[in-house]
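quick one
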Amino acid sequence: MSKILFVGAEVMPFAATGGLGDVMGSLPTAIRSADKNCDVRVVMPLYSAIKDEWRAKMETVASFEVKLAWRRAYCGVKSLVKDGVTYYFIDNEYYFARKALYGEFDDGERYAFFCMAVLEMMDKIGFYPDILHAHDWQSALSVVYLNCLFRWRREYQNIKTVFTIHNIEYQGYYSKDILYDVFALGNDCYSLLEYNGCVNLMKGAIVCADIVSTVSPRYADEIRTEGYSHGLHYIINQNYHKLRGILNGIDYDYYNPEKDNVIAANFSADELSGKATDKNELQKALGLPENAETPLLAIISRLAAHKGLDLIAEMVYNLLENNDVQLVVLGKGEACYEELFRELQNKFPDKARALIEYDRDLSKRIYAACDIFVMPSKSEPCGLSQMIASRYGAIPVVRETGGLYDSIKGYWEKDGELMGNGFTFANYSSAELYDRIVAAVALYNDSEKRKAFVTKIMNTDFSWNISAKKYLEMYGTLI
Ligand code: GLC
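structure w/ alpha-D-glucopyranose:
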């Protein structure tokens, strides 16, 4: 039986802020369903955001002291089992009882403690994985600590490591002055972590891991280049022999329009009438004209420039002025974009709504209600929203980058047959985005084609079925 330990900073449904949490919450279960012989476990911090309903189900399985340079800190390990996967929660109130998951002044120290605790935990609970699978910069040190500080212990000698990059933009870099003081590493380890004169945790994990993976094949190629690597392309290229790209899937139980109980009406690819009800209910709730035939466009995104919002800003006035469409935006982020959408709502009260918040249930109601989903990212390691939108019968309009490129193929017609599963454009240009949205609207306005295309995209398989097997194959090459 192979034993896999996932290490990450957020896991659905316990605590999450974005796509990493979705993947950490659904991939382990998918791997377990694909191979019942796999013992899959997951470890994350016990944040104060984790609700009492989960805490009530946990039991304490260990408590010990973690040494981090000159510090001695308490560490409790709590655990629960869900759908055949064992979850561990690293408890230390000083580090994890904070208002937000991240963005604290001492994030470097918090995740250094987390990673050190994860490695100590193995001894305390007597679980030594065959594969330690760490995700993003917050867990990068678990791979580095294993190699630098734990290999002398017999049980740790054969542990193999996979490091998955969900977004190369966030690397965890710090002054080299705190290498020992915060990260508990001596100068002998500096060369592993050093990048441009700083300590770079992601770089350290890339160098130390047996395999480095990322969340789509296209992104694996893109991060070899300066335009996408946020400075790390030299390291990626030096380690290219161990780089893999595996496309994410989504949780088909959690995102299921046939059973979802937060949407107004359920529907399926064969029976779409519930989707019309969902649209009507959302229009009513938002005070938009309740017009069934006006295409409803949606953007659900962190409001950040790399999500392509500067392209939206350039063309959205033109779009709303000259087309019979409605637009709903859900998300928060950079002030200039929050302001843009608020202004848009003022200028087009019958056409635009700005919901400047983060609300998972509301996002599902919007996915279920909207006809066209717009996602023009400048870079997108994988992206899950285009898959969720497809599952809820919204036509995606995306830029051909990263996982968007791998999951959505542009619409065209071959002998009357509808090809592709969305609308795509290559250049980072607002004119191309405008053109593709208008093309999607034209398809929507043809009711025959609309029905056929929506059915087709809802039937596209974005479950974990294929990718979970690819992860198993990848683990198999190491064990
Ligand atoms: C990050 C990426 C996103 C990806 C997600 C899960 O949030 O930005 O593209 O889908 O991680 O891997």
